[in-house]
Amino acid sequence: MDELPDAADLRRMHPENLEQSRDKLACFLSGWLGGPKLFSEKYGSISIPSFHAQWPIDEARSAAWLSCMERAIALQPFSLEFAEYLLTQLRVPAHRVVQASRARHG
Predict the structure, then answer these.
(1) Which residues form the signal peptide (predicted)?
(2) Does the pLDDT at position 78 exceed 90?
(3) Fewest CB within 10 A of the end CB: N or C in the chain?
(4) Are the C-beta atoms of residues 7 and 64 closer than 8 Å to each other?
(5) Contact yes or no for 66/87 (Cβ under 8 A)
(6) Could you tell me the domains of the chain?
(7) Mean pLDDT of the chain
(8) Is residue 62 over pLDDT 80?
């Protein structure tokens, strides 16, 4: 988010220090991908769409987040097949966050 101009608006929605945001994302992804349920162990239960509905997340912000995730995935030593699978899977919560935000903010 710090490097992509298209993500500047999205970046402003986060705290200056991204340490906790990164940890929460890593913990969420661990459980979401079938690993240990680190997020609930550390932070409690969460509904990703409901939690994010407090902010006006539209398609542009969702696309910016997915673009950031795509760049982060590309930096990992993942196989092409897994990288594509992961990005495809991340589109699901990204879309649900937009729907939840739209329902709350109109």
Answers:
(1) none
(2) yes
(3) C
(4) yes
(5) yes
(6) 5-105 (1.10.490.10)
(7) 92
(8) yes
CA–CA distance, 53 with 17 (Å, rounded to integer): 22
Q: Is 94 exposed, middle or buried (0-12, 13-18, 19+ CB in 10 A)?
A: buried
Check whether 105 is labelled as a binding-site residue: no
The predicted model scores a pTM of: 0.86
C-alpha span between 56 and 13 (Å, rounded):
10
Which residues have a Cβ under 8 Å from the Cβ of 10 and sit 6 or more positions away?
1, 61, 64, 65, 68
Say which residue, 25 or 46, is predicted with more confidence: 25
Which amino acid is it at 34? G
Task: Give the residue among 5, 6, 19, 4 at the shortest CA–CA distance from 58.
Answer: 6
CA distance 104 to 97: 11
